[in-house]
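**Archive record**
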Amino acid sequence: EVQLVESGGGLVQAGGSLRLSCAASGFTFDDYVIGWFRQAPGKEREGVSCMGNSDGSTYYADSVKGRFTISSDNAKNTVYLQMNSLKPEDTAVYYCNAEALMGLNTRMGVPTTVRYDYWGQGTQVTVSS
């Protein structure tokens, strides 16, 4: 069974820090891009940061560059999001996501691409002004 379990959310004052954790199980960790998304009330879910565990490549949304850092401990199948200099506009539910595109052949040898996409339950981050 695939599981992504987030932890580390909470209430913090503006300028403070939090570290989110995403513990993954049930799939081959290195095959996936692990990312953090967030959704504020009344807004669409947006991508915050992600990491390709096979090569360590990282991506950050412009709104968090220089403040957030994504990292992983592959031995523990865990991805972290260190959030510094938090702002009230960072308030949202933060979700962990694991996504992979895998090329496979069907029974008749036709190549196709299968997308695997898993989500955690989310953790609330609230930044007070």
About this structure: The mean pLDDT is 94.
